[in-house]
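User: I'll paste a sequence; please echo it back and then give the predicted structure.

Assistant: Echoing your sequence first, then the prediction.
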Amino acid sequence: QVQLVESGGGLVQAGGSLRLSCAGSGRAFSGYAINWFRQAPGKEREFVAGNNWSGTYYADFVKGRFTITRDNAKNTVYLQMNSLNLEDTAVYYCAASSLTTTAEDGMDYWGKGTLVTVSS
């Protein structure tokens, strides 16, 4: 079983930056694709960014602002978020998948999330 723990969330002003981390347990972590999702209160969860065996993918609303990177030696995936705006406020989740998909149904494991709040 893979355990995922997100960290790095917090309060940030609009236009600022924040770096989220997704730490996974076990040697098998490197065998999974990691994706980031987010969910604002009252809204559906949506895909943000992900690395899988076919490439790196970003949602349109974060292209040019967010960057996903991976350090397999540390069993950690990062989400660098720049130029944050109010609409980026959400709980951010990382999820692991053994498939080349960014769909929620394709995720095998989920973290509990970390809250990002963007203020004016």
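The first strand starts at residue 4 and ends at 7. The chain has a mean pLDDT of 94.
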